[in-house]
Amino acid sequence: MQSVVQFYRERFGLPVWVMGHSNGGYSVAEFAKHLKDRNKEDLVAGLIFSAARTMSDFGSGPFRWPALFVVSAEDGCAATSAAGNERLFQRFKERNTAPTELVLVRSAQAEGGDPCRVGTHMYHRAEEEVAKVLDDFIARH
Length: 141
Known about the structure:
Blueprint: H1 2-12, E1 17-21, H2 23-37, E2 46-50, E3 67-72, H3 82-95, E4 100-105, H4 127-140
Parallel strand pairs: 1-2, 2-3, 3-4
């Protein structure tokens, strides 16, 4: 992942934000530890955790990335619950020196099927709200 981020950073000359949804949130947490352990924190401009798995571990701080946690207020997936994401957010925020925000998406709607693959977990019918949350956070940081 580090080489991919480096490639796009050099190719476009723009800040790179890393985002992961669900299991991808776990991957972002692991990548953040990787960067911190190698003193490569400047490689990414910020982190976005979208409905992150609540078992994610960030390692030890301090951190200095703007970080956004976004999750559906009614996420039906037990592994990515809103309450669990609020706890992840608090753990990260306590160790982060940069702005750290949590946004609960309220417009997502349920739909039939596995709650970890559809519906509120996937921001069903809330795509515009989520896009605005992401755009606003990145623009401010």
